């Protein structure tokens, strides 16, 4: 059963400068989508707080982009985007670490079935054989056997 992290609700919320409805809606959508992307994985406190930081930072950047008076130099903007991307990368890394291997393999098996079934539509036998071999090699390397 998933743990209840409602006590972290105080950590979620935008600063007053970002209280416009469109920013609040964007913030909530980002959080909801990131949690949906993580379905099947126990979101611990670290992942929950990282989701909050990613959403807040993105909305802050978006707000600044839309306010010419507050717009930063291209270099500062690049640094902010790079920092935001590093948070997203860390989130995906942590998410992958917490995703059980059997779930990852199960998803890959589903993808493998779809790919191999789709290859049946190829009329050129040489192309079909070549692609099938390459896909099987890649899936095997990822730990999925035919």
3D shape: elongated
The number of distinct β-strands equals 0
Secondary-structure element series: HHHHH
Please report the number of helical segments. Answer: 5
Structural class: mainly alpha
Q: In whole angstroms, how far apart are the ends?
A: 33 Å
Report the average pLDDT across residues: 86
Could you tell me the radius of gyration in angstroms?
A: 21 Å
Largest sheet, in brief, is:
none
Query: Per DSSP, what share of the residues sits in E-state strands of 2 or more residues?
Result: under 5%
Q: What are the low-pLDDT stretches, counting only 5+ consecutive residues below 50? A: none
Give structural attributes.
single chain, 146 residues, mainly alpha
Element layout with pairings:
Layout: H1 21-37, H2 45-65, H3 74-98, H4 101-119, H5 125-141
Explain the overall architecture.
- With 146 residues, the chain is mostly helical.
- It has two domains: 6-99, no CATH class; 102-141.
- It is 68% helix and 0% strand.
- It has helices at 21-37, 45-65, 74-98, 101-119, 125-141.
- Helix 1 (21-37) packs antiparallel against helix 2, helix 2 (45-65) runs antiparallel to helix 3 (74-98) and helix 4 packs antiparallel against helix 5 (125-141).
- The longest helix is centred in the middle third of the chain and has 25 residues, at 74-98.
- It is elongated.
- The mean pLDDT is 86.
Summary of the model, kept short:
By secondary structure, the protein is mainly alpha-helical.
